[in-house]
């Protein structure tokens, strides 16, 4: 059997200072045995997301190095951004990719959480498969330090770095659709309709309506937590239609981090009705440089 491969997708509360962004990305890329897949940052969110893959031990080492860089360079006392956050390194999930189980990823998350708490004096909340009862991330955000006590580390927030949520989960798509208006009312309406208890009928979709002041736009910010059940094409089509009905337009969208392969092929299939397309028909090797 070939070696196990996992994905790590930590989110950090920094999107405005290039030197801090590069310090965090550099901590990951300097770790032997890890492949940096993608990173992105956003000024309005004041947030960055880094995606990397590799065997468990190097990935855990890279995640710990990045957490250390975040604690050194980010202070929530000076942080302003539209995205909800709990800490400097806000959320740190492990995702099984190949030759590894979810249970093994959960054990790795638990072990790393304990190490981060000890070494960085950072409160650690476990979530999803690493937690008892599979706590969801929004529930941890709402209940941290009031209804939910940290699983590891201090019982109160770090004075500058807050806390971190560490866990193991399945594939997730972070997907944003920007609307042409700075008025967030349409974005909030659409987000409410998209959520699991909303009117749009999508399964496993979390959504917020946010303002992008630096660009004069608003945004429907989405996490698709069951990507196997949601067509991105159908999701964008719904948002575009509702935006028109609410007097605005969907002007662009973006995927944050990596897109699961089956979702990418599903997008091609749905957009051009290519119902029989197969993975082998896409040759990544001849991607234009």
UniProtKB/TrEMBL annotation:
InterPro entries per record: Formiminotransferase_C (IPR013802), Formiminotransferase_C_sf (IPR037070), Formiminotransferase_cat (IPR004227), Formiminotransferase_N (IPR012886), Formiminotransferase_N_sf (IPR037064), FormiminoTrfase_cat_dom_sf (IPR022384), FTCD (IPR051623)
Keywords from the UniProt entry: Cytoplasm, Folate-binding, Histidine metabolism, Transferase
Enzyme Commission designation: 2.1.2.5
GO biological process, one term: L-histidine catabolic process to glutamate and formate
One Pfam family in the UniProt entry: FTCD
Localization of this protein: Cytoplasm
Protein name: glutamate formimidoyltransferase
Species per Swiss-Prot/TrEMBL record: Capsulimonas corticalis
Lineage of the organism: Bacteria, Bacillati, Armatimonadota, Armatimonadia, Capsulimonadales
């Amino acid at each position: 059997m070939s070696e196990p491969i996992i994905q790590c997708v930590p989110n950090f509360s920094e999107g405005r200072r290039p030197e801090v962004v590069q310090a965090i990305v550099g901590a990951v890329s300097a770790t032997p045995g890890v492949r940096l897949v993608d990173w992105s940052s956003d000024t309005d969110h004041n947030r960055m997301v880094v995606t990397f893959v590799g065997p468990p031990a190097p990935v855990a080492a890279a995640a710990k190095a990045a957490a250390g860089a975040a604690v050194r360079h980010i202070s929530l006392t000076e942080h302003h951004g539209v995205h909800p956050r709990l800490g400097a390194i806000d959320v740190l999930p492990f995702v099984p990719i190949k030759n590894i189980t979810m249970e093994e990823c959960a054990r790795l998350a638990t072990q790393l959480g304990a190490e981060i708490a000890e070494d960085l004096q950072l409160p650690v909340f476990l979530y999803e498969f690493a937690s008892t009862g599979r706590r969801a991330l929004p529930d941890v955000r709402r209940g941290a330090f009031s209804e939910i006590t940290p699983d590891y580390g201090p019982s109160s927030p770090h004075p500058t770095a807050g806390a971190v949520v560490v866990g193991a989960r399945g594939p997730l798509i972070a997907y944003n659709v920007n609307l042409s208006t700075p008025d967030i009312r349409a974005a909030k309406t659409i987000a409410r309709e998209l959520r699991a208890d909303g009117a749009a009928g999508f399964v496993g979709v979390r959504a917020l309506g946010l303002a992008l002041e630096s660009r004069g736009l608003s945004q429907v910010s989405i996490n698709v937590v069951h990507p196997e059940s949601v067509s991105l094409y159908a999701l964008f089509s719904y948002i575009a239609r509702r935006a028109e009905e609410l007097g605005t337009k969907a002007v662009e969208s973006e995927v944050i981090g990596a897109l699961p392969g089956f979702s990418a092929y599903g997008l091609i299939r749905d957009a051009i009705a290519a119902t029989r397309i197969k993975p082998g028909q896409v040759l990544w090797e001849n991607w234009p440089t």
